Structure prediction request, 522 residues.
Amino acid sequence: MAQRSTQGGKRFFVWAALAGLVSGAVFLAVAELFALILARSASPVLAVGGFVIDIVPQPFKEFAIATFGEYDKIALLAGLGLAVVIASAVGGILEYVRPPLGVVVIVIAGALSTAAVVTRAGVSPLGFLPPLLGAAAGAVILVMLSRRLRTWKAAAVPADGEEAPKAMGRRQFFLLAGIAGASAVIVGIASRAVSMAVTSVEAIRDNLTLPKPNSTVTIPNGAELDIEGISPLFTPNKDFYRVDTALTVPTVDPDTWRLVIDGMVDERVEISFQDLLDMGLDEYVITLTCVSNEVGGELVGNAKWLGVPVRDVLKKAGVKGDADMVLSKSVDGYTASTPLSALTDDNLDAIFAVAMNGEPLPPEHGFPVRMVVPGLYGYVSATKWVTELKVTTFEKDEAYWTPRGYSAEAPIKFSSRIDTPKLGAAVDAGRIAIAGVAWAQTVGIERVEVSIDNGDWTPATLSAPINEDTWVQWFLEWDATPGTHYVAVRAVNKNGDLQIEDRAPIAPDGSTGWQRSLIRVA
Prediction:
């Protein structure tokens, strides 16, 4: 009988964990509901996720990018979800074993969520309420479920060799757990879906007609090589890399978007989306590179952009002579430090882009307006969802990544990459093409050289360059013999500089090194 009682008692820990999970779900659902009503930026999960992104040390950020790529945000959300499940289950058990420790867990979770919400950029004055109300609702449900669970256990204690009636306590527990759990799922999912639908700008973007550009870029014959496996000349929007700090894609209505130019200027200027379009659009072809791009990596892409020169917008405000930096700010609070000279140089096409590869910017790439600056890594120049320019100095201000171990200024280091044959993929013996891309923004690529099995460096054939701000394709025909072969590639820019051979990590200002790959020939 004692063994049976012990085994029966253990199962109540399972039901206590279930009570914690239901209470956690109620917490999140009520918070999402009131976030929808009071402050759509006050979702606890998204706020905590954004906070985690901000505080995670640089090596972990790079590990996440290298491991999960564009799915790093999904991985973070999955990790947060697992943490919520574990914490909720532990809270339920604590409340069952030693009340009110479970409620304390929920109170702590509510306090942390509130702190994460109120410290996010652009939070509304009522942003603190959703997580507090969610925590209160979760705590109430946890207390009610725990009391019913203890009543059920008390009724299940053997007396005189017989079990006392326990159906009432068990029925009350499962009835409340079922109603609360189902309601939480329905309310939580519905609130998040409605919030996304209300704030979605997809329909606006789809119906947006941009004016025709005043000028277009002429693509020369031979700009794109017809070689299987090589990166296309223009990276499709769906394949263009995405690396940013936004846990969810910001939704910005072009009708309400404003760009503010302030700081060390003669006059504070505020322009609307229509004001920007009225300045006249031109077409540009610019390659973007992420500082997180490893040697041979894929965090680089080339696109056609429609936009307005940043220098023309800055002229409206009048930049003061002592300024040397522009701190650009995104709607989600992200900031980038761009040398003022890169934005005002008449020979550099730094732009506010509104279109990408023939269509309005995709939401994940900065709709309605982003910055595109040739020759600089994206973290110091390519601010998406841009809403503010502060003309300042490097001495006075620093951007998001600077205190996290990255340089305040980051010119792109030119590089080259092997696209085909892919590492580890076997090819047939005979004449094949080794091919890839190379880039040296603002300078241009002079030549690309390939070495096979540590042999002499052989010049590759280059595609016709569009301009000095875009990558070029290259290929070398090779008579492949059976076996495993080592292939290396390097580039020389138009200044005569040789690509750096020595390997360097991506922090603080971009990776270096020649890519070396293996080719298996059958």
Observations:
- The radius of gyration is 29 Å.
